[in-house]
Each structure stands twice: as structure tokens, then as C-alpha cells.
Write a structure and sequence with these properties.
This protein is mostly helical. It contains 8 helices and no strands. It folds into 2 domains: 100 residues; 69 residues, Muramoyl-pentapeptide Carboxypeptidase, domain 1 (Orthogonal Bundle). The model has no long low-confidence stretch (mean pLDDT 87).
């Protein structure tokens, strides 16, 4: 009788231990699925909707993984063979990839701002795929290679810049001798060849305050 009682107690303890272990396993996911937002992103990105979605995704990644584990015992990283588990893992993987893509874009924007680009410039660079080093000349292409005899709004703009820099020239939109001489003087001061034509190097000097 005593042996039977000891056997029953032993079995009871085993059953209790098993269910305690099951509960422990259920409420202790095997991996920490939390996704922490990067400190290197641009917090003032030109598209606030994308920034907001990034933060939402960071939260949802961990929340979704925990829901799957607590409610259904599914580990989204090692889902097993059931269809439901595979679908949950696929969704988690897709959400992770989307979030990382957003994060890469936001970090790129932060890097560009470190280089001096503002939001409108960054938007143009990202949406057109333009290399940052080409952005300046892309935006100022209409001012390139103006020469004596030209007459245009672009010449007028260049004359305004030259006047702001202290050159005494007419503001008439005509690339006459005074404007040519001012350009040559600017080029000499910047150690450029005094061609009198607004090449890339000259435009860079003109646009530098």
C-alpha cells in the first residue's frame, strides 16, 4: 500500500512538473523577436507616412511573433510543417524584409543630410535614383555652358549672382563683355581656367555662398 501511494505521488509530481514546463515553454518564447528601431535613421524623413509605417512595423514584428507563440505555439523562425505555421513564418519574413528595406532608406536619408542635402533634394535623389554627386549639376544643368552672345533668363540669374558677389555688371539677361569679364575674373580668383564660359567648376563656384 505504501509503495502504491509513493508511486501515485511520484506520477502526480511528474504530471505537475510536465504541465508546469509546458506553461513555462508557452510563456517563454525560444527567441526574442522584438525589432528595435535603428538610432541611425532620419527622424525627419521627407515622407512622414513611410517613417510612421516603419515604426509601426518595428512594433508589429515583435507583437505578431509573440501572438503566434502564445496563442498557437508557433515559432515564426522555426515554424514546423503545418500549413498555418508556414503561413505565419512567411508573413513574419515578409514583414521583416519590408521593415529592413524602409530602415535602409531612412538611414540613407540621414547620411545624405549629414552631407548637407535637404528634404527636397533627398526626395529628388531617392525618387529618381539620381546619384547624389550628380544632383547639383542635374538641378543646375540649364546654367551650364552659357557663353558670350547668349540672352536668356539663365544669363539674368547668373548676372544676379555675380552682382551679389560684388561684380559691377548690367542686369539685362544678355551675356555681354561685362558679364564675360566678370566670369573670367571669378574663374581666376578660383584658380580655374578663365574661359569666360559657365562650365561645371564655374557653376559650383557661383552657387557657393
Amino acid at each position: 500500500m505504501k509503495r502504491l501511494l509513493m508511486l501515485i505521488i511520484s506520477l502526480s509530481l511528474i504530471v505537475i512538473a510536465y504541465f508546469q514546463y509546458e506553461n513555462y515553454q508557452r510563456y517563454r518564447p525560444p527567441f526574442d523577436h522584438s525589432y528595435t528601431a535603428s538610432d541611425s535613421i532620419d527622424p525627419n524623413y521627407y515622407d512622414p507616412l513611410l517613417l510612421d509605417q516603419y515604426y509601426r512595423n518595428c512594433y508589429e514584428l515583435g507583437a505578431f511573433a509573440r501572438r503566434m507563440w502564445f496563442q498557437k505555439g508557433i515559432d515564426v523562425q522555426y515554424p514546423g510543417d503545418s500549413e498555418e505555421a508556414r503561413e505565419a513564418s512567411t508573413r513574419y519574413t515578409h514583414l521583416t524584409a519590408t521593415t529592413m528595406k524602409m530602415e535602409k532608406l531612412l538611414i540613407y536619408s540621414a547620411d545624405l543630410k549629414e552631407q548637407g542635402y535637404d528634404n527636397p533634394a533627398i526626395q529628388k535623389i531617392i525618387e529618381t535614383g539620381l546619384a547624389p554627386r550628380n544632383y547639383f549639376f542635374h538641378e543646375n544643368a540649364r546654367y551650364l555652358y552659357l557663353k558670350p552672345g547668349d540672352r536668356s533668363n539663365e544669363v539674368y540669374d547668373i548676372q544676379k549672382i555675380l552682382i551679389d558677389k560684388g561684380y559691377d555688371i548690367p542686369l539685362d539677361g544678355t551675356f555681354g563683355p561685362e558679364t564675360e569679364n566678370a566670369i573670367k575674373s571669378l574663374q581666376r580668383d578660383a584658380n580655374l581656367y578663365p574661359s569666360g564660359i559657365t562650365d561645371k567648376e564655374t557653376i559650383t563656384v557661383l552657387k557657393t555662398k
